[in-house]
Amino acid sequence: MDVMDPLGGAEFAPRYTYLNTSTCGLLPRRTIEAITLLAEETADGRPDGAGSFDIVAEARATYARLVDVHPDRVAVGSSVSVHVGMIAQSMPAGSEILFPEGDFSSVITPFTVRGDLKTRFVPLELLAESVRPETALVAFSGVQSADGRTADFAAVRAAAAAHGARTLLDATQSAGWLPLRAGEWDYTVAGGYKYLLCPRGASFLTVTEEAQDSLLPIHAGWVTGEELWVNSYGPVRELARSARRFDEPPAFLSYHGAARSLALLEEVGIERIEAHNKALAARFREGLTALGYAPVPDVSGIVGVPGLGERQADLRESGILLSARAGNLRASFHLYNSAADVDHALAVLGG
Asked: How many CA within 13 A on the CB side of residue 282?
């Protein structure tokens, strides 16, 4: 099989040339079946209709394997902004938080609304060298939403360690196609509905054991107890000793689907998906350059083309779905895409 042939087999059958995973990933067939089954069980009043914590645990464990950490280091939730909000509310007043300029607002805003934190913004390419002794936390997206640029992971990690700063990596635009060793970062967050192919309402937070000690479980409830079924009334006796203490109550429809989606990614393999996505993106960049455009130079599976965002509507009329972000035309490739998809988009842009 050629590296640019679709992966995932019969799990996907898009009706359009879909190059828009950075906005929302396609749901696999198995995921739709799992959601439908739970919805029907709920509608029928069947015993399993309330949803299964065992399936949530399955999703947690599969995600943990995908990002190379123990399941005890993974918390489940509903959105990136909720996870980041918990981290932001745990920072001591006066702490300096360092961000790349133009990063996604859900990484930034939970900190800026505090009003008593020092926030500093620098160009992405200067992020590592801008860490200083007073920096408490470096918060950034591994792959930028607006244009697909990839951060220098090793340099940021080394700079943070040298100055005693903690790190928060948003992997929403990379988890699912770019290998991630989440244990190398104090915190990682990932929205599930993009490259992880999960339904909206599933997201993941990883926390190192050391960082867990200073993180406030500000939305703790009965599901965050060490013993799950003894905390329904009165104060929770003991919070979970693992990162499960930071869970939100799971949206079961989302997590029943997420367990199936994450299993598919594990079956295909993240390294294989990475090679596939990068090959398609490279083909698109080469074609754009031949047409006289100047895509953002990177090896990312997401391609940004400055000043071309206005072509989104033309492409849509031709059955090609992409995004316009910050003036860029943004094409994002995933396992269900093929060389034919790339060539279709190039033909319309060159026509």
From this structure: 9
| pTM of the predicted model as reported, rounded to 2 decimal places | 0.97
Q: Is the dihedral of CA 340, 341, 344, 349 positive or negative?
A: negative
DSSP letter string over 14-30?
Answer: -SSEE-BTTT-PPPPHH
Helices 29-44 & 252-268 angle (0-180, nearest 10): 160
Per-residue pLDDT for 1 more than 80?
Answer: no
Kindly state the tokens that stand for 132.
Answer: 């200083």
Beta bridge partners of 304: 330
Radius of gyration for the chain, computed over Cα atoms and rounded to the nearest angstrom: 21
**Beta-strand relationship, 203-207 and 74-77:** antiparallel
Phi, psi (deg, nearest 5) at residue 143: -130, 130
**244: closest CA among 63, 90, 118?**
63
Percent of the chain with pLDDT over 70: 100
DSSP strand E in 101-210: where?
Answer: 118-122, 135-141, 166-170, 187-191, 203-207
What's the start-to-end Cα distance of the chain, in Å? 30
Q: Which residues contact residue 316 at a Cβ distance below 8 angstroms, ignoring those fewer than 6 apart? A: none
Is residue 256 within 8 Å of 51, Cβ to Cβ? yes
Three-state DSSP at 188 gives strand
Are 8 and 336 contacting, i.e. CB atoms less than 8 angstroms apart? yes
Please tell me the predicted confidence (pLDDT) of residue 260: 98
Question: Are 31 and 260 in contact, with CB atoms under 8 Å apart?
Answer: yes
Task: Note whether 193 and 20 are within 8 A (CB).
Answer: no
The residue among 350, 89, 347 whose CA lies nearest residue 218 is 89
